[in-house]
C-alpha cells in the first residue's frame, strides 16, 4: 500500500471540501448582498418619507408660530380695550 497516494488523495479531498465550502459561502454571500440591497432600498424609501414628513412638520410649526403670535396680539388688544370704560353721554 502506497501511503503517499493515500495522503495525496486525502489532500485532494480536503481541497475539494474547502472549495465546495467556499462556493457555498460565496453563494450565501451573493444571496446576502441581494437582501442587503433590498434593505438599503427600503431604508432609502423610509428616509425619503421622513424627509417629506419633516418638511410638512416644519411648515406646520411655522403656521403654529404665526397663529400663536396673532392670538397673543389679539389678547393684548382685548386687554387694552378692557382698560377703558364706556359711558353714555347725553346731549
Structure description:
This protein has one helix and no strands. The chain has one helix at 3-82. The N and C termini lie far apart (141 Å).
Compact summary:
This protein is 88% helix and 0% strand. With 91 residues, it is mainly alpha-helical. The protein is rod-shaped and about 140 Å long.
Strand content: under 5%
SSE string, helix = H, strand = E?
A: H
Mean pLDDT: 85
- Radius of gyration based on Cα positions: 39 Å
Structural class: mainly alpha
The largest sheet is: none
What's the shape? rod-shaped
Q: What is the percent of helical residues?
A: over 70%
Could you tell me how far the N terminus lies from the C terminus, measured between alpha carbons in angstroms? 141 Å
**Uncertain residue segments:** none
Number of helical segments? 1
The total count of strands amounts to 0
Keywords for this structure?
1 helix, rod-shaped, mainly alpha
Topology summary:
Layout: H1 3-82
